[in-house]
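Checklist before submission:
- one chain only
- standard amino acids only
- sequence pasted in full

Submission:
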Amino acid sequence: MSRYSVSLLLAPLPASRGEVRQDQDGSMSGEISPTGKRSGSGSSPELRASHADRDRVVDVLRIAAGDGLLTADELDERLEAALSARTLSELTALTADLPPVSATVGATGAEVKDIVRIEQVHSGAVKRVGRWVVPRRLELAVTYCGVTLDFTDAVITHDTLRIDVGMTGKTLTLVTRPGIVVDTDGLQLVHSRVKYRQTPTNPDTPVTLRVELVGQKVHGRVVVRPPRRTFGQWLLRRPTPLSTDD
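Returned file contents:
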């Protein structure tokens, strides 16, 4: 047998696809995963984000913007990043500097509902005030009962609220706050009128909720106004009397 033949017999065989070979340092290498990538690096793959994961982060961002924690530009930038995020770590980075959802939505002890229907005939006024959770859609079937929807401290987790109005008599009052826009173009008025009394807002304030009124309002009024000032606030904003020289 020639010297060349002996060297071929003593040479190690190359590792085949899927075979694990032990290196000189004792480590295992050469294994190829079904995706075609080598294993053994010790790092776990990034977990993918689902549509539900993205929606939860979007809700947190909108709540934070409504509470004044994010500017309009920051909200737009983070919403775009959330909707295009592919992994959970990318979503986590978008809310790392914000309070947890449980500190806002969870404090109400209620969850967001898709549709809420209010039916009332010739009885006491209907009111939604304080820290109530705004549904995605609201149906009003009310006859001669006043309705007040106060959004001052309401929990808002989405950007649009559609209100289907079927209301006769009395007044529908919407109490707004900066960042809330009311659209009455889709509302039919029959012997009724709409009165807007909104305070000027900073143009940089992000729109956190768009309220769309559709349906029909017969007799009475629709009033859109800011929260009423307390007596202390009224005193602070009252013009200072002019002093007279002796």
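Reviewer check: Residues 4-9, 15-43, 102-109, 238-246 have pLDDT under 50 and may be disordered.
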